[in-house]
Amino acid sequence: MKLPIVAYGDPVLRKKAEEIDEDYPQLKELIDNMFETMYSAHGVGLAAPQVGLPIRLFVIDGSPFAEDEDGEGDADLKDFKRVFINPIIVKEHGEKWAFNEGCLSIPDINEEVMRPSNVVINYLDENFEEKEEELSGLAARIVQHEYDHIEGKLFVDKLGPLKKTMLKSKLDQIAKGQIRVGYKMKFPLQKKGR
Questions:
Q1: Which residues have a catalytic role annotated?
Q2: 68 labelled as ligand-binding?
Q3: Residues 6+ apart with CB under 8 A from 97
Q4: Which of 31, 111, 118, 193 has the fewest C-beta atoms under 10 angstroms from its C-beta?
Q5: Is 93 a known ligand-binding residue?
């Protein structure tokens, strides 16, 4: 089932998410629904706060970055499909590099964001088995972006003051639902009856 994606401006996107345990209600169904929602919106990652749940869970499938139109891409992402439950970034390291990021909760805005090239993350998978991985390049970037969501942060927070000022009216329009998107969204400031 496709879930509505929460838009910029909703307080759930600013909450530090809570850990969950194996008894979390209908967890498998939630994970399946999050993947379905992410795929229908053409995303590569989706965090639980983006579907209105302040819990430490996100899903990733980096395969769209494995090959682009030119036949180039990051082959390591071909099989990079994961569920991250209660993740902890143990270490971020390496040279910072810029990449044009976007977000399903902030449609139609893409900006260059600087992040470290490598990340070590500890997490539980969908079977609650503990994992620790070191990731680099785009895999690390996708994880860092989704991890920010469960920490109550958004990629626009990493932009400079001038860029934030330039984007303010567009962000306000997103919060009010004054945009068109090709997937179901929930807008926090949208006037009823529109």
A1: 146
A2: no
A3: 114, 115, 117
A4: 193
A5: no
Helix (H) or strand (E) run with residue 124 in it:
strand 106-124
**Domain assignments of the chain as residue spans, ordered by start:** 5-85+103-109+137-186
- Rounded Cα distance between 72 and 102, Å, is 20
Closest CA to 158 of 105, 98, 91: 98
Question: DSSP characters for 42-107?
Answer: T-SEEEGGGGT--BSEEEEE-GGGTS-TTS-S-GGGTT-EEEEEEEEEEEEEEEEEEEEEEETTEE
CA distances from 177 to 13, 174, 186 (A): 16, 5, 8
User: What are the beta bridge partners of residue 119?
Assistant: 92, 135
Q: What is the pLDDT of residues 42-90, one digit of tens each?
A: 999 999 999 999 999 999 999 888 765 454 556 678 889 999 999 999 9
